[in-house]
Every structure is written in C-alpha cells, then in structure tokens.
Design a protein that fits this description.
Number of domains: 2
Number of helices: 18
GO molecular function, one term: hexosyltransferase activity
CATH architecture of the largest domain: 3-Layer(aba) Sandwich
Shape: globular
Distance between the termini: 20 Å
Strand content: 15-25%
Keywords: Transferase
Radius of gyration: 22 Å
CATH class of the largest domain: Alpha Beta
Strand order of the largest sheet: 3-4-2-1-5-6-7-8
Protein name: Glycosyl transferase family 1
InterPro entries: Glyco_trans_4-like_N, Glycosyltransferase_grp1, PEP-CTERM/XrtA_GlycosylTrfase
Structural class: alpha/beta
Largest sheet: 8 strands, mixed
Length: 409
C-alpha cells in the first residue's frame, strides 16, 4: 500500500523563496519514489488561488482566510488554530499515514494537535529557529521576552514530535545542547534538484550587452535582500575592488526589505556606475543571470542565524558551475571548503571581501578545476535525488512503532 505523507507548510509554490524551492525538491523526490504526497499551507501563504490546486505537478491545500490582526500573540494563536482545523479536515478526508511539519514552530504545534487526535506519527523539520529568523529579518531582538517565549515553544515542539529533522549540523548541535535525545534527530541537508539546476545555460551575449557587462569581471548576488545577507558590506567593498580590477561590475538580482537602503548606498558610492540592480526576475529567467556571473558572492553577517543555518543559494551556484566566495560564518563553512569548493573570507569586513574577490580574478588558472570539484560535491553530497533516502528509515520506524494506533475519525 502506498505511503501517504502530508507536509504541513508555512507557504509554497507559486511563491518563490528558498523555503518553497526546498519544499518542491522534497515533494518531487518523494513522488519519484511512488509515495503519495500532498502539502497544506497556513494563512501566511500570500499567493492568490483556489483552496486546492496543483502547481508544477504538486498537490497543495490551503488554510482558508486571511492572517488574523491585532495583538501579535493572539494573532498567531488564531492563525495556528485555523491551520490546525484545516489540517484536521484534510486528515479526515485524505487519511495520511504521516504528518511532516516544517518550520516555523506554529506549523509543528498545529500539526501536533491533529497528530495526537488521530494517532498519526509526526516528524518536525526545522529549517531555522523561528526566534533567530525574526532577529535576522529585523522583526525580533535576541534576548527579548518574545525571543525567550518562542525558544521555549520551539523546544516544547521538538520534545513533542515523534522525530525531528534539521537541515544542518549547526541546528542539530543547538538541539543537543537543549537536552534533546540525539537518536531522535536526523540531518537532512539542503540540496539541489539537479533536474532544475544541473544543466547550466550558456551566457547570452545580447543580455550581457544590454546590461553593459561585455568584457567585465562580474561579481553577482541572486537572492533576497535581507540585512543578514551582508550586501551592504559587498557594496562597501566595491571601491577597493574597482581599484584592483577596474573592469569589475557587481550584479544584484532580487529584492527584499533592504532594497531601497542598498540602492541609496550604491548611489552614494564613488563607483556607483559599477553596481547594477536588476530587481526581481521570473524564476525561469534566473539561470540567464547566473550565466552572466563569474563569481557569486555571499557576504553573510556573523550572527546566530548565519552560524547555525546553511543557505541554499551557494549550492545552486555550484550546481550551475559558478565560482562561489562567501563569508566564513558557520552555515557557509558547513557547505564550502575554503580553497577546494569555494573561497571564504572574514564576515563583516569589506576589505576582506575586496581582497578575496580581487585575488580570485587575478588567478584564473584554478577556475575550471574548482568549478568541477564544487559541482561534483553537489552531485554526490547535496543532490535531492540521494538526500531523500534520509527520510526513509525515519518514516519506516514511525509507521511500524508498536504504540502506533490511529484514532478513528
């Protein structure tokens, strides 16, 4: 009998984010193994559409209604309750064998209510701790009462789950420090769907001419513009980098909360004409911009979020055959071996960024070998087609545990 897995999500396709792309990769890989898979999103899924839809071959259900308003705690409690009710209705109708809840913690709490009611095992997958993500995007403060409360909720959800998956060793280490049983935790690292990113497109000369990149050394960043990404440090590094490499250009593709501040900073730079903002581009156009870039730069700032969590974008760049240079925060060190698969530089240091990038441009002799080594690492270690096997023994253990007894709906 085919195993049915219901993924409990914050948001999904057609929205585009690292969160939705990881979800797509997981669901696609599980479907390829002939598992019956669906997802249900909470009220923070902001894309318009029907309450049930199939996108890119993936089956999604939506929690009806708009996000609640008012006091933050009451708002989140109401949204969690609505999400739990929607999950419960779907469980009664579709009868999944496993609930696979993904962070933030409100999803785990909603799924846990339903799992307990129906006797269904639940795995909780943490992509980042909610309290640290809030600090990273500027909506929270480390050490505040809200931060403390969210951390307690996270710990409680982990203890209540039947199994826990984390995306990196940094998150696993933090849970172990909280006293969580290591036998309960698996690491399911970020990976790349090689069918999606594994075939780099050739550089488009017409696009290069349109952007003014002909003959340029191109540094690029493609992603979301959050403060923790350190793009202000990258822009601050440009005058020194231009002095060393007069033909260098910085290509910034994407958008986000810090976009206007970054545009203002770039406009005031003495090398403003070397900094190009493209804005957001359709997802099916992203590879055309990857192809314009010589080195993808990821200058993340040093903080708990970046030390604990591994990003997805450097892996996608490696799969595209691009060189990567990144700050030496913990999340990057888990992905990138300095001098082997990429170049690491000190975080929060524009001078270090400029020196690392100018050094890479000055010596192109290693480029082809490094590209090949980095791509081979992704294919072998961070390919979703192989990563997905990490879930199988956990699912099997949960489905065959002696105390499992589904409650009648």
């Amino acid at each position: 009998m085919t195993t049915r897995i219901l993924h409990v999500l914050d948001h999904s396709l057609p929205m585009h984010s690292g969160y939705t792309f990881r979800t797509r990769a997981i669901l696609r890989a599980q479907i390829a193994k002939d598992w019956d898979v669906r997802g249900i999103t909470g009220r923070r899924h902001g894309a318009k559409g029907p309450d049930e839809e199939i996108i890119d071959g993936l089956h999604f259900h939506r929690t009806p209604g708009r996000p609640a308003t008012g006091n933050a705690l009451m708002r989140e409690w109401r949204d969690m309750g609505a999400h739990a009710d929607a999950i419960d209705r779907l469980v009664r109708d579709w009868r999944p064998d496993i609930l696979h809840a993904h962070s933030p913690v409100l999803n785990a709490m909603a799924a846990q209510r339903v799992a307990k009611r129906h006797g269904i095992p639940m795995i909780y997958e943490i992509r980042a701790f909610w309290e640290d993500a809030a600090v990273g995007n500027g909506t929270g403060t480390e050490g505040s009462p809200r931060y403390w409360l969210t951390r307690q909720l996270e710990t409680h959800a982990v203890r209540a789950a039947d199994a826990v998956a984390v995306i990196c060793e940094g998150l696993r280490g933090d849970l172990l420090a909280r006293g969580i049983d290591p036998a309960k935790i698996i690491v399911s690292p970020n990976g790349v769907d090689m069918d999606q990113f594994g075939t780099p497109v050739p550089r488009d000369p017409a696009l290069a001419a349109k952007l003014g990149l002909e003959g340029a050394d191109v540094v690029g960043f493609i992603g979301s513009f959050y403060d923790y990404e350190g793009l202000d440090d990258l822009i601050a590094a440009m005058p020194r980098l231009v002095r060393a490499r007069p033909q260098v250009k910085l290509l910034l593709v994407g958008g986000g909360p810090c976009e206007q501040a970054l545009r203002d900073q770039a406009s005031a730079s003495p090398v403003a004409d070397h900094i190009l903002f493209i804005g957001r581009v359709p997802h099916d156009e992203v590879e055309r911009y990857y192809a314009q870039v010589d080195i993808l730069a990821y200058p993340r700032k040093a903080m708990r979020l970046t030390d604990l969590v591994t990003p997805l974008k450097p892996l996608e760049a490696m799969a595209q055959g691009r060189l990567v240079a990144a700050s030496s925060v913990g999340g990057h060190r888990e992905l990138i071996e300095d001098g082997i698969t990429g170049t690491l530089f000190s975080p929060d240091d524009p001078t270090a960024i400029a020196q690392a990038l100018s050094g890479m441009f000055a010596d192109r002799g290693f480029w082809n070998a490094r590209r090949a080594t980095a791509r081979a690492f992704v294919e072998k270690e961070r390919n979703w087609a192989s990563n997905i096997v990490r879930y199988e023994p956990v699912y099997q253990r949960l489905l065959t545990r002696p105390d499992r007894a589904r409650t009648a709906a």
